[in-house]
TrEMBL record, chain B:
Annotated PANTHER family: INTEGRAL MEMBRANE TRANSPORT PROTEIN (PTHR36833:SF1), SLR0610 PROTEIN-RELATED (PTHR36833)
Assigned keywords, A-Z: Membrane, Transmembrane, Transmembrane helix
InterPro entries recorded: ABC-2_transporter-like
Taxonomic superkingdom: Bacteria
Lineage: Bacteria, Bacillati, Actinomycetota, Actinomycetes, Micromonosporales
Protein's name in the database: ABC-2 type transport system permease protein
Listed transmembrane segments: 25-49, 61-80, 92-111, 146-173, 200-222, 234-254
Amino acid sequence: MSPRRPFRDTCTTFGALSWSGFRRYATYRQATIAGSFTNIVFGFLRCYVLLAVAAGAVGGTPAGYRPDQLATFVWVGQGLLTVVSLWGWTELSDRIRTGEVTADLLRPIHPVTGYLAPDLGRALHGMVFRFVPPLVVGLIFFDLYLPGRWFTVPLFGLSVLLAVVGSLGLRFLVNATAYWLHDARGPIMLWTLAAGVLAGLYFPLRFLPGWLAVTLWVATPFPGLMQTPLDVLVERDPVPLQFGLVGLQAVWAALLLALCVLVQRRAERRLVAQGG
Amino acid sequence: MAELRAYAALLGGQWRSVTSYRASFAVEMVTNIGGTALDVFAVVVIFQATTTVAGFSLPEGVLIVSLSSCAFALADFAVGNIDRLKTYVRTGTMDAVLVRPLSALVQLILMDLPVRKALRLPFSFAVLAVALRINHVDWTPARVALLVVAPLAGAVFFSSIFVLSASLAFWWVDSGEVGSAFTYGGRDFTAYPTPVYSGWFRAVFAYGLGFGFVAYQPALALLGRADPLGLPTWAGFASPVVALLAAGLAAAVWRTGIRHYRSTGS
C-alpha cells in the first residue's frame, strides 16, 4: 500500500485480494462439507454437556446463561470456529521456513495487508458456507435463543469482523516467530491450546471465577475471538456492557495489527542480516 | 533382522528431525501436556459450575475423564499421526511407503512418531491416580484387573478409531476433518458421563460406535455404581471385547483401503 497511490487503487487491490481469498476456499467444496460435518458433531457434544450443566445448576442458569442461551452459544460458536479460524493456519511460517516469504517483500503491498485481505475473503466464505450449517442443525434439534434487541445482530456482525481481524493478527504474530525460531510448530501448538480454551470454545469463560474472566478479557485478546461475539449475540449482558465488550475488542484488534507491522519491520531487518 | 534395522532407521531419522529445532521442540513437548491438562481442566470447570452433571459428582467426573485421557493419550502417541494419511495420499508419499518391503502401517507410524507427545502419558496416569484417591473404590481382584485392562482396551479402541478415520483418505482424499469428529469427538464424548448426552446421538456414539465402553462403563464398575441407563455392572468389563471388535474392523478396512489405493500419479 504505497502512500503515493490514490486511495481508490488501494481499495481495489484490497478488494481483489479479498475476493481471491474467498475463491480459494470456495474451490474445496468437499472439504467444506467434511468440515461442517465435524463442526456439527462437536456441536451436539458440547451442547449436551452445557445443557446437563444447566439442568444441574441452581436456578437452571449457570453463570447467568439460560439453557437456550447456552445452546445458541454452542451452535453459533461451532459456526464461528472456521470463520474466525482458530486453528490450522501455518501459511506464513511455512513460507518463512522455505524462504518463499522473500517474494512477499517484493510485492507493492505491505505483508500484513497482503495476509489480512485474503483472510477477510476467507472469513466471508466461512460466514456463507461454514457458519450456516451448524446453526441450521442447532435450530432443528435444540431450542435456540433468538436476540431481542434490534441492534444485536449488526453489533454481532461488527464483533465477528473484529474477531477475524484480531485472530489474523494473533496468527500472524505466532507464525512470525518462525523468523527467529525457523520452525514455529511449538508456538503454533501453544496458540492452538490457548486459543481454544481462552476464546471460550470449551466452556463459556463466565464459568470461571469473576476476577479471572475479567483479567482474561482486559489483559488478553483471546476472549475477543469468540466469547465476545457470542455473548453479544445471546445478550448475556446489559446494553452498555454489550457495547463495551465490542469496544474492548476493537482496541485489541488495532493493537494487534500495529504489533504485526512492528514485528514485520523487525523481521525484515533480520531477514536481510541472514541473507548476508 | 534387516527389517528391524530398517524400522530402527526410520525411527532414528524421526528422532533427529524432531531434535534439530531444539527450542521449538522443547516448547512443543511442554505444551503437549497442556492438551491433556486442558481436557481435565475443562471437565473440572464444567463440574464446578453446578452441583452435579447428569447425577455425577466432580470426583466421579474426574475418574471418567482420567480413564478417557489415559486411553486417548496412549492411542494418540502410538498411532495418532496416522491422520496425516490424507496428506500422504495427496502428495504421493504413500507411493514411496508402499514400494518398500515393510508394513505400510508400521512405516507410517514410525515415520511420524510423535515424540513430543510422550509427556502426556505420565500426566494422564497421574490424573488417574488422583482420581482413584478422591473416589472411594472398594477394591476387589476384579476391579484391580479392570483398572489395568480399561486404559489398555480404551487405547486399542481409540487406535482402531484413528486407523478407521484415516482409512477414509483411501476413498475420499478431500475428507478434511471428518475423521476428527470420531477421534477427537470420541475423546470428548468419553470425557463425560454418558447420561449427559441423550436421544439418538447418545445411542449412536455410546453403543453403536462403542465409546460408552471406554471410560464410562469401566468407571461405573470401579465405583460399584448402578448405571442410570440400565446396563448391568458387567458391562464395565466388556471394554476389551468392544476394543477387539473395533480393532478387527479397523484391520479389515485398512487392508481393503490399501488394496483400493490408486496413486494420485504425482
